[in-house]
Write a structure and sequence with these properties.
Chains A, B: Its cofactor is pyridoxal 5'-phosphate. Two copies of one chain form a homodimer. With 396 residues, the first copy, chain A, is α/β, with parallel strands linked by helices. Chain A has two domains: 145 residues, Aspartate Aminotransferase, domain 1 (Alpha-Beta Complex); 215 residues, Type I PLP-dependent aspartate aminotransferase-like (Major domain) (Aspartate Aminotransferase, domain 2). Chain A has a seven-stranded mixed beta sheet, sandwiched between helices. The first copy, chain A, has a four-stranded antiparallel beta sheet with strand order 11-12-15-14. A two-stranded parallel sheet of chain A has the order 1-13. At the A-B interface, helix 1, helix 3, helix 4, helix 6 and helix 7 of A face helix 1, helix 3, helix 4, helix 6 and helix 7 of B.
C-alpha cells in the first residue's frame, strides 16, 4: 500500500471463502451458501402501489433531507410493534448499520465484547473494525448457556451480543427459560444486552418467544430489520435503545450517513401501514417452513452416518457438523468443483473455530435442486469420511 | 451515563447551534440557516417514471441484496462522467458515508489530517469520531493557499481534505492555478488529497474548473453526490479512489451497511441514464444563480458598513464577516427572536474559529423573504456594531 492507512483497515483481509464462493454465481452451481431471502417473498405489488402513493402524496418531502432519527410514522410503527416508546427508536440503513453504530458508540480498542459460539459473521466483522477483545460464551444446540455468565467472565464487558431467534448461522432458537435466565444474569452483573433479531417473525408455526427487550427494556439494545419480512434491497433496519444510548447512536448515525434514505422509509411505511405484515409474514413462514422440510428430508435420505444437523423451528439456516477431524473449508473446494456450495462454519467463531461445521441455506433453492445438491454433498462427505478413516486407522 | 461507552462517543456533544436553530422550523422564521437544496430542483416526474420502470423491469432484483460496490450501470455512469475506470467507483449512502468510510480507512487516533480554514462541518464531525489531529491550512477568500503546504506542515499527514468547488460554508471556488499548485505540492510531498465535490456542477454560468482527480487520479480520493443534482432524500453519493484504497473502502463499506439500497440506486440510474442531467442541471444553475442574486442585491441594500461578504460563482452559500469583535453566535439569539436565522461560522473551523463570520443559505427562500430577512439582519448588525462601538471607544 502506497498510502498510510489506519490500523483497523490494515487488519481487514480478503476472505478466502469469498474467493471460493465467487463461482457460486454460475447458474449451474446449486448454492446453499447464500444468505439471501427468497425473492418470491417480496411483496412487489404492494410496494409498487405504495411507491405510487408516496409520489402522489408529497414527493418533495420524500426526496428531501430528513431527520436523523428516521421518518416519524415509520418509527411509530416500529414502536407499536415492539411496545416501546417511539423516542427510543432509530431507523438505520439496514441492521448492518446498527451493528456499526453500536460498535462506534460502545467499543474502544481492547474493550471486552461477549459473543455467542458461533455468532453472526457480519457482526464480528463490524465490531472488529473497532478492535474489541471478543470473549466467546459457551453455547450448545439451543444457544448460549446463561449459567456460563459468571461475574469473572462479564466483568468490564461493554455488551453481550445475542441472537435469540433462528440465529445466523445455526438456525437455533434460545428457549424461554434461557432467555429469562440470561436477562436476569445480565441485569445482576450489569451487562448490556444487544439483541439482534432479523428472523424473529419467521417461526414456521408462527409461535414467538418474548424478546429480551420485552423482559428488560432498560438493559437491552434491540436491533430489528425489514430485510427478511419486506425486502433487503431497501436496507431498512432499526434500533430500540435506552434513552441515553439512543441519543449517542443518533449522533453517531448523523456522522455516518446523516439519515437513512427518506424515499425508502416512506415507501416501506406506505407498504405496511395498513396491516400488510399480518397477512404477508405468514406466507413467508409457510414458504420457508416448506423449504426447510425439503432440505431436512433430503438430508435424511443422503447424509452418511457421522454427519449431524439441527432441525430449525424458523429462519433460513441449518447447521451441520461433520465428524471431528474433517475440515469443511477444505471439502468446500471439492464441493464447488461438483457445483454445490455451502458456507464453512469456522469464520462464525470469534475464537476456537469448529472446522468440521458448516451452514446450509435453503430458502432460495427449488425442491429438485435441494435434492440434487444434498445428494452430491452426501456422496462427497461419505468419501471424505472414508478417506479420513483410511488415513487415520482407529487405534485398536 | 449508566453504561460504559467508547471514548469517541463520550466526546460527541450536543450542539448549541442546533438548539438555537430548532426554532427555525417555525413557519414565521425566515431561515438562511438550512443547507437544504431547493425542492423545486427535484426532477419528480422523471423519478416517478423511472421508479415505474424499475418495478416493470426487474423488481425482484431491485429489492434484493446486492454487491457492496454498487449497481454496476450506475457505477459505469459515474465512471464515464469522471473519465475514471469503473473499478475505482464505489456507490455510498450519501457522501456523508464516504466521509465516514474514508475516516475508517485512513484515520488512527492522533493521525494528522489537513483541512481548509474553514471547512465542512459534517466532515469535521465524521472525522472527529476517529480522533485525528486536525491541522488547519491557511486559506483566503479564494480557498486554501497551496504555498502554505510545506514539508513540515504535511509530514505524516494521512490526507488533505479539500472542497475546491463552492465550498460549504464559504461558497468559494479554488482558482485553476491554485488547483495545479495544490496537486503539484501534494504529489511532491506525498500527501493524499480527498476532494469533496457535491456542488461542482452548480456553477451559475456553467463553467467548470478541472477536478483535482483529473489532474492526478492516483493521488486523489474523489467524493461525488447526487444530493444536489437529483435529490438528497435518496442518499446517493460515490467515491472514486486508487485501486488499493478502493478495495479497503469497499471492505469498510461492507461492515458499515453491506451496500447502498439497491432500490434507490436503480431508480437514480433509470432517472439519469438517458441524459436527464444534461437538461436538468442547467435549470438548477439558473434557479440558484437567480436566488444568489436576490440575496446579493438585498445585502447591498441593507448591510451596514463594516460587514463584508463574498459573491459566489456557484453553489448554495454566501459567507459573511461582521466587524472584528462581534460574535455571530451571540447575535444569532437576537436574530432568532426577530424571526431570522443563519449559521454562525465558528463550528466550521477545526481551530481558531472566526467568531465574527457566518453562513447564509439562499436557495430555498423566496425573493420577498430574502429581502425581508436581510433587512432585519442589516438592522440587527447595525445595532450590534453601534453597541460594540459604544462599549469600546476607539483609541484617539
Amino acid at each position: 500500500m502506497k498510502w498510510a492507512i489506519s490500523r483497523r483497515a490494515q487488519q481487514l483481509t480478503s476472505s478466502a471463502i469469498r474467493e471460493i464462493l465467487k463461482v457460486t454465481e454460475r447458474p449451474e452451481v446449486i448454492s446453499f451458501a447464500g444468505g439471501l431471502p427468497s425473492p418470491a417473498s417480496f411483496p412487489v405489488a404492494a410496494m409498487e402501489a405504495a411507491t405510487a402513493r408516496v409520489f402522489a402524496d408529497n414527493p418533495q418531502a420524500a426526496l428531501q433531507y430528513a431527520a436523523t432519527e428516521g421518518y416519524l410514522p415509520l418509527r411509530e410503527f416500529v414502536a407499536r410493534r415492539h411496545d416501546a416508546p417511539v423516542e427510543r427508536v432509530l431507523i438505520t440503513t439496514g441492521s448492518q448499520q446498527a451493528l456499526d453504530l453500536i460498535a462506534k458508540v460502545m467499543i474502544d480498542p481492547g474493550s471486552k465484547v461477549l459473543v455467542e459460539t458461533p455468532s453472526y459473521l457480519g457482526a464480528l466483522q463490524a465490531f472488529s473494525l473497532f478492535e474489541p477483545e471478543f470473549v466467546s460464551i459457551p453455547s450448545d444446540d439451543k444457544g448460549l448457556l446463561p449459567e456460563a455468565l459468571t461475574p469473572e467472565l462479564t466483568a468490564g464487558a461493554r455488551f453481550l451480543y445475542a441472537l435469540p431467534n433462528f440465529q445466523n448461522p445455526t438456525g437455533r432458537r434460545l428457549p424461554l427459560e434461557r432467555r429469562e435466565a440470561l436477562v436476569a444474569r445480565a441485569k445482576e452483573q450489569g451487562v448490556l444486552l444487544v439483541e439482534d433479531d432479523p428472523y424473529g417473525a419467521l417461526s414456521y408455526t408462527g409461535d414467538q418467544l418474548p424478546s429480551l427487550l420485552s423482559m428488560n427494556p432498560d438493559g437491552v439494545i434491540y436491533m430489528g430489520s425489514f430485510s427478511k419480512i419486506l425486502a433487503p434491497g431497501m436496507r431498512l433496519g432499526y434500533v430500540i435503545a435506552p434513552p441515553e444510548l439512543h441519543f449517542k447512536l443518533c449522533q453517531a448515525k448523523q456522522a455516518s450517513d446523516l439519515h437513512t434514505p427518506t424515499f425508502t422509509q416512506r415507501v416501506a411505511y406506505e407498504t405496511i401501514r395498513d396491516g400488510l405484515l399480518d397477512t404477508h409474514i405468514p406466507t413467508i413462514r409457510e414458504l420457508y417452513g416448506k423449504q426447510c422440510q425439503y432440505m431436512l428430508d433430503a438430508l435424511k435420505r443422503h447424509m452418511p452416518e457421522g454427519v449431524t444437523w439441527n432441525e430449525p423451528e424458523g429462519g433460513m439456516f441449518i447447521w451441520m457438523e461433520l465428524p471431528e477431524g474433517l475440515d469443511s473449508m477444505v471439502i468446500l473446494e471439492e464441493a464447488v468443483k461438483r457445483n454445490v456450495a455451502y458456507v464453512p462454519g469456522a469464520p462464525f467463531y470469534a475464537s476456537n473455530p469448529k472446522r468440521n461445521a458448516l451452514r446450509l441455506a435453503f430458502v432460495t433453492v427449488s425442491a429438485e435442486r435441494i435434492e440434487q445438491g444434498v445428494a452430491i454433498l452426501g456422496e462427497l462427505f461419505r468419501e471424505a469420511i472414508a478417506a479420513a478413516a483410511a488415513r487415520q486407522p482407529r487405534a485398536a
